[in-house]
Amino acid sequence: MKTIRIAVAAATLGLCTPLAHAQEAPPIHPALHDRFYVGLGAYVPKSSTSAQLNSSTLGVGTNIDFEQALGMTTQKTLPDFFVRWRFADRWRVEAEYFQINRTGDKATENQIQWGDVTFPANTQIQSRFNFSDTRVSAGYSFFRTADKEMGAGFGFHVASYNVALGTATISNEEKKVLAPLPVVSIYGQFALTETWAVGGRIDRFVMTYDNYYGNITSLALDLNYQPFRHVGFGLAYRSLNIFAKATGSSLTAEFNQTFQGPLLYVNASF
Known about the structure:
This protein is mainly β and 270 residues long. The protein contains one helix and 14 strands. The chain starts with a helix and ends with a strand. Mean pLDDT is 87; it is low at 1-22.
C-alpha cells in the first residue's frame, strides 16, 4: 500500500510541475501597463546640416554645409522630453520634443549666395541655425499581452527652422519655416523582467502638400530599467533624417539634416 501511495504522489508531482510552470505569470513592467509615462533626458546627437535659399531675382542659391562651411558644432547635448498616455487598453497617444540652437562664425572659402544676398569668398560670416522637432502621434496596439505589444500609429513631426546669415556690414538674411511632416509609425515593446524592458519605433513618410515637400525617417530604440514602482532610468538611441522644401512667392528654402546619437533619461510612470 505504501508503495502504491508513493507512486501516485510521484506521478501527481510529475504532472503538476509542468502545469505550474506553464501557468507562471509573464513579467509585468510598468512601462507596458501604467497609464502615464513621462521622461526627461540628455540627448547627444551628431548633426549634419545643409541648406539652400533660392531667390526669384538671383536664382538658385548655394547649397551650404553649415558644419563645414560655417563652423557650426557637429555635436551638442540637448534636453529631450517625452510623454505617453494610454487612454484605452490598446490605444495610446505620445509626444516628444527637442530643440537645438547653434551659431557659427567663420570666413568662407568660396562665394555664397543666400537668398537675395551674395557673400564674396573670404567673408567672415556670422550664422544661426535654430531647429526644433515636435513629434505627436496616436497608436493602436494590434497585438498586446501582459509582457509585449506591437502596434501602428499616425502622427506628425513638426519641424521648425530659424536660419540666418550675415556679416558685420551686411544685415542677417533670415528665413523661418514651420514644416508639419506626417508620419506612419510601427512600434513594439517587450518586458524582459519586471524591471527591464526594451522598445523600438520607426517613423517614415514622404509628403507633398501646398507649398511644402518633405520626407522623414525617424528611429528610436530604448532600454529601460525601472527598479522602483514609479521611477526608472533608460538608455536610448535616436535618429532623425529630414528633407524639407518650402516654396514662397519670392524665396524657396531647402533643408537636409540628420541627427543621431544616444539619449540618457529618467522616467516616471503611474
